[in-house]
Every structure is written in C-alpha cells, then in structure tokens.
From TrEMBL:
UniProtKB keywords: Cell outer membrane, Membrane, Receptor, Signal, Transmembrane, Transmembrane beta strand, Transport
Cellular component, GO, one term: cell outer membrane
Residue span of region Disordered: 669-714
Subcellular compartments: Cell outer membrane
Signal peptide: 1-15
Xref: PANTHER family: PLUG DOMAIN-CONTAINING PROTEIN, TONB-DEPENDENT RECEPTOR-LIKE BETA-BARREL DOMAIN-CONTAINING PROTEIN
Topology of the protein relative to the lipid bilayer: Multi-pass membrane protein
Record's protein name: TonB-dependent receptor
Family according to the record: Belongs to the TonB-dependent receptor family.
Pfam families: Plug
Stretches assigned to the TonB-dependent receptor plug domain: 68-178
C-alpha cells in the first residue's frame, strides 16, 4: 500500500491520499527503494508496497515543465499540486500562477465583474478574448458572451490547467488572446485505487466570519471479462466570506471660473466630492466530476465524463456618495489646499456638499453541466482516430434591487438649494485617505433623509451546446515530415437572454416609473418608514478617521431573499416590481459552426540544433442567428431575426520559437452578448442630470477617473 500525504491551509487543514496499486516488488526482494520517487515511478509501480511516498511542488513543477517541453506550441501549465499549495479560492485565482495571465479581482476574489459584465475574469498578455476549454472542449456560461465564469469552478476539481498563448489549428477557434484548458482527473491517470479527502478552513478578519472547503475523491480500476474498467468520482463544496471597504475621491475638475487658491498650480484639479462603500457577502460552490473509462481492447478506449458545478453569490452593497447636481467643483473660500506634482489636490476643504446613499443587493445562482463521450481507436500502428460527443447545459440567474436615501427634500434641488449641505474636509496623504463633514449630525440623523428612488431587476439566462468531433492522426516514418493530423467538428450553440431593469421614482405624488415629477415636488421623508435605514459604516472601517460620527445606509424590510425584500419595499410605497419579461427584455442567439482542420508536423536538425513545429489550417463556416425585438418610431414593436453566414480560413505555423501573438486567430460571435441591462449602481452618468429632476440611478458616478481609490478586502 502506498501513501501520499499532503497538508496545507490558512488556518487548519488535513488531506490524505491512499493509493492501493498493483506495485512491482523491488529487485532486491522487497526491500525499500529508499531515496526519492517521482510520480512516474509511483504510477509504474517501481516502489515498494510499504513505502510512504510524499510528493510536492518540485514534482508538479517537473510535470508542468515536461508538458511545455513536449508541446508543439507555446503553452504554460500548472498542475494540481501547484493549484492546491496555497488556499486558492477559485480557478481564476489558480490561473494567476501562470506567466502572462492577469486576473481581475472583484468582491474579495479573482472574478468576473458581476455588475458591468464589461471585463472578463482573466486576460492573457493583456488580451481579453480568451477561449475556455474543459478537457479540450469548448465551454461557456449563460451569463452572456463567450466567456466561462471560471470563478464558479472549485480548484480542487482540477488535475491541471493549460494556457495556450498562440493556439494552433487543432485548437477550437474563438480565442484571439489565447485559450485556457481546464483538465479534470480520469481513473486511468493512476495505476490503482485512490482515496483522497481534504478540508481547509479560513478566517476572514474584516467580516469576522469563517469559511471552509472540503473535497473527496475516489478512483479505482478493475479487470473484467470485457476489459479493464476505471471509475472516478470527485466532489467539492466550499463557502467563503468577504468584506470590501472602499473610499473614492473624485472625479476631479478644474477650479471654477473666477476662483483662486493660494499656492495652487496652474493646472490645479479639485475633487467634485467623495464616496465610501461597504460591500459584504458570501459565496458557495459545489462541484462534482465523474468519469468512467473502458479499455475494451488493446485498440479501443471509451471514456465517458460528467462535470457539474453550482455557484451561489450573495452580496450586500452599501454606498454613500456625494450628489451635488452641479457641473463645477466647489473649493471652500480661504481654505488651505495642498497639491501633488500632477496638480491634483491632496488635502483641503470643499463647500456646499450634499449626499445620497444607496443599497444595491444581489443574489446570483448559476450552474453548468457538461457530459461527454469519447471513442479512441488505434486503427494501425501508425493511424489512430477518435470520435467525441459533448452536451453542455447551463443557466445564470440573478435577483437585484436598489434603494436610495437622499439629503434632498424636493425634486430639482442641488447642493446650493438643499437645506442639508455641509463642508467636507479631506486629506489624501498618508497611509489611509480620509474625509469628514463639518456638521457630523447631518449624516446620522434620520429626519434629514428622504426616500426618492427604488429599483428591481431580474435575470434568467439559459445556454446549451451540442458538439460532435472526429479527429485522426497518422505517424510518418522518418524524414522531414513527422506526423499528419486532421479533424472535423460541428457545434450547435444556443443562448437565451432574459433581463429586466425597473426603476421607480418616489415623491408625495406617488410612485412614478417615468420620474417626471415637476421641480419642487416634495419627496417622501424617511421618518415615514424609519425602519428603512441602518447605521454605517461597518466596524473598523479603514482607520476610523472617515465620517467618524457615522452615517445612514438604506435598509430593506425583512424577507426571505432579495426578491422578497424588494417586493416588501415596493409595497410600502404602493409600487409594483416587474415580475415578467416583456419582448424588449428577451434576446435569443444561435450559432452553428462547421469546422475542418489539418496540421503537418515537421522536424529537422541544423548542425547540432533540432527544430520542430507544425503548419496548419483551420476553416470555419459559421451560421449565426439573433432574435429580439425592434422598437419602431411610432412606439410599436416588431419581432426581428438577423442571420449571418461566413466562412474564414486561418493558416497557422507554429515552430518552437519565441512567443508571439496569435494574430490570425478567429473571433466568432462578434457583437454577441446580452442586451445592456446595467443596474443603477453600474451605470456611470452619460450626461449631467436635468435640473428639474435629480438622476438617482448613479451611485457610482464616474465623470472621469478618480485620482484616488482605496480598498480594503478581507
């Protein structure tokens, strides 16, 4: 019996693997082999059955280097030991270990931008169009577009990750920036029985909560009357917490005409205002992978695989932001300012500042199921063929809401006409930026606030793929030409996108989805529903020197989940949520691709130097159809379907040479993606609000890039 032991965690963990293999007896009659053993030696049974084999990072690095060395294209790999050696929260974070891969961090982890959906979770050498594979097969999520939400995949489910930076002709099209292949385990990867159990715990200090991850794997091989059969089952469940504190200064603008500041540079830039936010939430992940392999004969191997993942993300987003309804900065007269060398103010005082505060919560749950069947047949000693069938099914659902409190008392006010304005003193120097108001009671007194705006949003997406592939490979004996490879592939992809955004302005006139109340209309005081506020910011927010006397965030009525809380909020004001999808909320896209590819691998020696590589071509015929709704000038709507059909060849040569961009790669689904369903907190203002009605949709307004943005995550 062989034993491999692994332990590692941020707080406490245990893991163990027991391999019960048909090991050879050592040549000395069963004595211990001594020294160190590689994974290849373990797999081939070259160690004594009583040996304890401990494998670590060195061996996984050796395996990853072998993959790169033997590959006929530019590839980087990370194997399971590398993925697990630190407590990676998800597969996105595991990818940051690979040279040339950059990840985006969102809400405490490497993840897709859930709100804007404008940036993918990863880029390869700065390029965003990255194709995603699971065991070499194309996958995508129902979130919209072509990307797969990698953050939903637990890293414990994987045997390794490969990143192709210059994809050859045999790689499925669509990845201009590169391709990421997630490899899962199969029973024939190991020589016999494998049992593995892991557990890991984490403590998140800023939110003062614990998280955990646990996984189990069983794999075995059996000799039967119909050939050798292997089975594998791997399951993972994890939960993580996060809290993200943010302080934003800006955007910045020039001094108002006729205003001067002592010592200010000619290009002085003053912040329009300041914002803070508290973001808290949790994530849960469940993943399962199962595989059955059947060596029916020396020539035929049948492999059936299933991978399923479920992902839950719950978020509470609380924002407190300046909302002055003015187009000019407002430095306080006579106040002292300091500036950095670029001309941006680093300390000073702003006058006539007023605020709004928003809560934007969301519950997101998604799942993907991928089932495959592969037949690999060794026709002759030189010729082998394979047939592959894949079916992918996924969904992506989200409930979102919005709730705003304001220091305005009537519609059409700005910071110069509201009774609730104050000076703001700020200092962006030192370890932590900070700002505070001259009138502390203004921000923490409920009677100063009104309830001007509420919002709701639903998202329900589904996606399906059926793919068939046939590949052949022929070994050529000797000479310049080494191998001929080719294949055919058909894929039928469908995605149905459904999403709403419903905003309602509130005033004494009642709920108004058109937000058309005349200027001067009285808003609804918070004192009418005092339960709709909560104190903020969170405990230990930054260094405690910003808004030291506290402020108020919006709160939702009690309810089982985001949607129930949203409906309870609407009921207080006699408003109605949008519970059904209308034609304008729907979009359906279908893409069928017919692909043929061929590669010729070559090798030769020039002096003492060996050169090898390949020349290939991939031809893709794409038929894409998009169905939606056309909005006519007279206010009517018409169903519409748009079709595109095109054929494009891509010739590729990939000698083993220094890395270079895959300039000839194809991008499909051009322009495909979800309709714009950005929530209020997600939309920067495209223009200034009209003077007769404040625009409550923008809790994170970006008139320009903020000069200072600070975050603390835990």
């Amino acid at each position: 019996m062989k034993c491999a032991l692994l332990a590692g965690a941020s707080l406490a963990a245990f893991a163990g693997t027991i391999a019960d293999a048909a090991a050879q007896t050592a040549a000395d009659g069963g004595q211990s082999t001594g020294g160190s053993a590689t994974l290849d030696q373990v797999a081939s049974g070259q160690v004594d059955p009583q040996d304890v084999v401990v494998t670590g990072v060195r061996e996984s690095i050796r395996s990853a280097q072998a993959l790169k060395r033997n590959a006929d294209q530019i590839i980087d790999s990370v194997n399971a030991q590398d993925i697990g050696k630190l407590p990676d929260a998800n597969t996105t974070e595991a990818l940051q270990r690979i040279t040339g891969v950059q990840i985006q961090r969102r809400y405490g982890e490497g993840a897709t931008d859930f709100d804007h959906r404008t940036q993918p979770a990863i880029t390869v050498r700065g390029l965003t169009q990255v194709q995603n594979f699971l065991d070499g097969r194309a996958i995508y999520s129902a979130s919209g577009g072509r990307a797969f939400d990698l953050e939903g995949v637990p890293p414990e489910l994987l045997a390794g990750i490969d990143v192709y930076k210059n994809a050859p002709a045999n790689i499925i099209e669509g990845g201009v920036g590169g391709a990421v292949n997630l490899r899962t385990r199969k029973p024939f990867d190991t020589p016999g029985q494998v049992i593995s159990v892991t557990a890991r715990g984490n403590y998140y200090d800023r939110v003062d909560k614990f998280g955990f991850s646990t996984s189990g794997l069983y794999s075995n091989r059996y000799d039967t009357g119909i050939g050798e059969i292997g089975i594998l089952v791997n399951a993972v469940y994890s939960k993580s917490q996060y809290r993200q504190d943010g302080l934003l200064a800006g955007p910045f603008g020039p001094l108002p005409t006729g205003t001067s500041i002592a010592g200010a540079p000619a290009n002085a830039q003053i912040p329009y205002g300041f914002e803070i936010y508290d973001d808290t939430g949790d994530r849960k992940r469940f993943g399962i992978a199962a595989a059955v392999q059947w060596q029916a004969s020396d020539k035929l191997l049948v492999t059936a695989q299933y991978q399923g993942t479920k992902y839950w993300f719950n978020r509470t987003g609380a924002y407190y932001y300046d909302y002055n309804n003015r187009n000019v900065t407002s430095p306080a007269a006579g106040a002292a300012f300091t500036f950095n060398k670029e001309g941006y103010a680093t300390s000073g005082t702003l006058s006539q500042q007023t605020f709004e505060t928003g809560r934007f919560d969301q519950e997101l749950w998604s799942a993907s199921q991928n089932a495959t069947l592969n037949f690999a047949y060794q026709v002759t000693d030189k010729l082998k063929m394979s047939v592959d069938v894949q079916y992918l099914d996924s969904y992506y659902n989200a409930d979102r809401n919005g709730h705003v409190l304001s220091l305005y008392t009537r519609s059409g006010q700005d910071a110069t006409t509201t009774p609730h304005a104050t000076n703001v003193v700020f200092d962006l120097r030192g370890k932590y930026p900070r700002w505070d108001v001259a009138n502390p009671s203004l921000l923490n007194t409920a009677s100063n606030y009104t309830t001007p705006y509420i919002a709701d949003s639903l998202q329900r997406n589904d996606a399906r793929t059926l793919a068939l592939a046939y590949d052949a490979e022929y070994e050529v004996e000797g000479g310049f030409l080494q191998k001929l490879r080719g294949g055919l592939r058909f894929a039928d992809n469908t995605i149905d996108l459904r999403g709403t955004w419903n905003g309602v302005c509130l005033s004494q006139l009642g709920p108004d989805p058109s937000c058309s109340a005349p200027s001067g209309t009285a808003l609804i005081p918070l004192s009418r529903n005092p339960q709709l506020s909560m104190p903020g910011p969170s405990a230990n927010w930054f260094d405690g020197n910003t808004v030291k006397n506290g402020l108020l965030y919006p709160a939702f009525p009690a309810g089982d989940g985001v949607w129930a809380q949203t409906k309870a909020l609407y009921a207080l004001f006699g408003a109605r949520t949008k519970d059904n999808f209308t034609p304008g909320d729907l979009n359906s896209q279908t893409e069928k691709t017919y692909t043929g590819w061929a590669v010729a691998d070559y090798a030769f020696e020039l002096g003492s130097v060996r050169f090898d590589g390949g020349v290939g071509v991939r031809v893709v015929k794409t038929q894409a159809t998009s169905r939606g709704t056309q909005f006519n000038a007279n206010g009517s709507t018409t169903p519409i379907a748009v079709q595109r059909l095109y054929v494009r060849p891509a010739q590729r040569e990939y000698p083993r040479a220094p890395d270079r961009p895959a300039a000839d790669a194809l991008r499909l689904f051009e322009g495909a993606g979800p309709p714009e369903l950005r929530s209020a907190v997600d939309q920067p203002d495209a223009q200034q609000p009209q003077p007769d009605q404040p625009d409550h949709r923008a809790a994170e307004r970006q008139l320009g890039q903020p000069a200072v943005a600070a975050d603390q995550v835990g």
